[in-house]
Write a structure and sequence with these properties.
This protein is mainly β. The protein has a domain at about 5-90 and about 125-140. The protein has helices spanning about 50-60, 155-160; strands at about 5, 15, 20, 25-30, 45-50, 65, 80-85, 90-95, 100-105, 115-130, 135-150. The strands form 2 sheets. Strands 3, 4, 5, 6, 7, 8, 9, 10 and 11 form a 9-stranded mixed β-sheet that branches. The model is unreliable at about 1-5 (pLDDT under 50).
Length: about 170
């Protein structure tokens, strides 16, 4: 996972893409909803990291977040914030359910904000940035995401029921 010595045409450092299997996603905001720690329109999520992996990634230049321990002294997992953008290089996002495979786009990706994710694999690319605060490193952007949704027994029971062609409003009394 070491930073590549290659540089882009602009002279910025380049880093190989990062793949994470069986990822755990937290603070999901695929819809870009304005929240306490998120401006409206910014789509992102965080990936939980084991401490050893987080330290290695931080040494490579990734922007790792280290939360403060809880009051009881319990250590919390570090995270990597991953941005989701659909303008320049839209990510490929595949969702698997009992019904099959669906590709999500800018309009449908918000389904993942509340979905029960059973398994998740992703590929992240890094873009080098230097901020006025003095921080230098790689901002993570989603390149590929594969998600398998967990479906409970109630979801499975009603999965194959087709809606009536006539809507409830059109029914005669």
């Amino acid at each position: 996972m070491a930073t590549s010595k290659a540089k882009t045409k602009s002279g910025k450092p380049r880093i190989p893409p990062l793949s994470i299997k069986n990822a755990k996603l937290v603070y999901r905001n695929f819809s870009g909803t304005a929240k306490k720690f998120n401006a409206k329109g910014l789509r992102n999520f965080h990936v939980l990291l084991e401490p050893e992996i987080a330290k290695s990634l931080e040494q490579d230049g990734w922007n790792i977040k280290w939360p403060k321990p809880r009051d009881d002294g319990e250590e919390r997992n570090s995270t990597l914030k991953v941005r989701v953008r659909f303008d320049n290089f839209p990510p490929t996002i595949i969702m698997m359910t009992a019904r099959g495979r669906s590709e999500l786009d800018e309009e449908t990706v918000s389904l993942l904000d509340t979905a029960e994710i059973e398994n998740c694999d992703l590929k992240i690319v890094g873009s080098y940035n230097e901020l006025e605060t003095g921080w230098k490193g790689f901002t993570a952007y989603l390149s590929q995401l594969g998600v398998v949704l967990s479906e409970n027994d109630i979801m499975s029971k009603y999965m194959d029921i087709k809606p009536n062609k006539k809507s409830i409003d059109e029914e005669d009394d």
